[in-house]
Amino acid sequence: MQVFKLYVFLLFFLSYTIHSDPNKSIQGFYGEKAIGLSGAYTALSDDPSGLYYNPAGIAFAINDSISVNASSYQVFRKTYENVFGPGQSYTRESKNFLPNFIGVIKTFDKINVGFSVVNVLSMKYYLSGENNLPLYEPNVLSYKADATENSQAFLIGPGLGYKLSSKISLGLSLFYSYDFEDLLLTATIDKKDGSVTKNSIKTKRTTTGILPILGMQIQASNKLSIGFSIRRNVTYRHERFMNSNTLNAEANGSTFTRNKEFIEVSDRTAVAFDEPVMIYFPNPKVGKVPELTEGRLGMAYFYSPRFLFSTDIIYTSSYWHAKRTLGYTTPLNAFVSADNTSMNNINRQSTLNFALGMEFFLTETFAIRLGTYTNYSNAERHSNLQMQISRFYSNPYSPLPLPVTDKFYYIPTSERTEFIDNFGYSIGFAFESTRSVISLSFIIEKGRGRGFAFNSMIPQTIKELNLSAYFSAGTNY
Q: Among 51, 94, 249, 445, which one is most buried in terms of CB atoms within 10 A?
């Protein structure tokens, strides 16, 4: 039935834009010292980057200071293995060169204040490729695709740290958050019988909100510091608009059948048209992002004036948002029941990550920092069989609408089936004096997992590799 085909068409292009949604809780590291320690910084945080990790830590800052990650070079690479056939893999890669943190602290008597800008996420994916004679699709002659995908998220705002006593402090940061996505895609599928499908898609998403961070720090002894912070992002504006046009030329013997399809989606409506069938959904909320709570517990041990050890435990909460709405299709005059997970699955599983770092001064002014951390997936783990069953219901190429009656169709709740668990390592070199600091740090993060690419019904092995280099500088005045 054509309603099946049309809803398949609607889901395919919406699901493509979901690829840039974060699958990990840890998005990056900020500040010259925190980077080298793999983010194990909650119990320290006595420089401007403490505004992000634990604002209570800036209460123990001695001098006014400015910190800048002047430049960072980042490479993110994700490879889906054997998508089209043995050795025929699909790789997405992003390369960026930009600053990722600027912060300042002003000290007073019992209270210190600061202001910072944090570039949380910046990815630019470019895809221009062709796959000929895919082994797993014997009817297809070639796939061609050109895509540009940009994702940007940053935080900006003030913070303060207040000393309750010489050993205990409280802190608060309040960030304005901005999250943006932009995608332009053109794709062509040529089949061996002469059939051709061409599609172009444009989509934009903008989400804004606030992120308050509350922190506490305790100097338990001269050698031991304990820190705690909690945060939760709250969105108050979310917009998404997507427009897609598709031309199909299907071979039928010596003749061709041509038809056009289009979809338009916003936070207010979702409409898909494939003559003569149209499906309409009100209020799909496709611009919404997950609102997560994160808690950090950290400890720092100062073994000597030249050596310190720090560790963090990072808990990120789960999130569930699956609001079912009733759509309508004409001229069938039938209802379709679906929830937002079909178009914008923002459900998340909770994660528990760990970070471990150490700093050692080889001389009075030269330090080496080492660190390691986990970055677990926030999607539920499934066996291959469970993934295939879930894929049958959530695959945009499958006939998802289940006919309950001739006038009512039901769309099951979709699940996020891609998961990758990553492990990371950091090393940093710093020259420090009482007046200034210059550092160069490197991070490598890699992992393996399982998931699906495109219309595959068989889970693929996924490899992820992220490389980052940071040049940072700071000054006390």
A: 51
